[in-house]
Amino acid sequence: MVLAAAFPALTSGSLVGLVLGLIGGGGSILAVPLLIYLVGVRNPHMAIGTSAFAVAINALAGLVTHAREQTVKWRCAGFFAPTGMVGAALGAQLGKAMDGQRLLLLFACLMVLVGIA
């Protein structure tokens, strides 16, 4: 019965990894709602932190594959990654200062804007 309880997490993680590996993004957009509404992580802050870890590991697996295929522009990545890390750290600090329900509302608004675009 443990596998049955883990099934939503296993299928959600597989979907996030597949999307991230396939198109290089979008997995993180799926991860938080899947964690909250399917897997059952009730605290939005916990879902965001859990998503950050899971997506980072998925991205690392994708990086290994792309590095082997020589499809990484290392110089560009060398500039892109550190500034992204700064943005992620600032975003995490701002997010921790907000109510979890407010974060979910902001996320929903972002998804509507992405859908319109």
Key traits:
single chain, mainly alpha
Structure description:
The relative contact order is 0.10. The protein has one domain (13-116). The chain is globular, with a radius of gyration of 16 Å. The model has no long low-confidence stretch (mean pLDDT 91). It has 117 residues and is mostly helical. It has five helices and no strands. 85% of the residues lie in helices and 0% in strands. The longest helix has 25 residues, at 44-68.
What's a quick, concise take on this entry?
The chain has 117 residues and is mainly α.
- C-alpha geometry: globular
Q: Overall pLDDT, averaged?
A: 91
Could you say how many structural domains there are in total? 1
| Oligomer type | single chain
Radius of gyration: 16 Å
Biggest sheet layout: none
SSE diagram, text form:
Layout (H helix, E strand, L loop, with lengths): L1 H22 L3 H13 L4 H25 L5 H23 L3 H17 L1
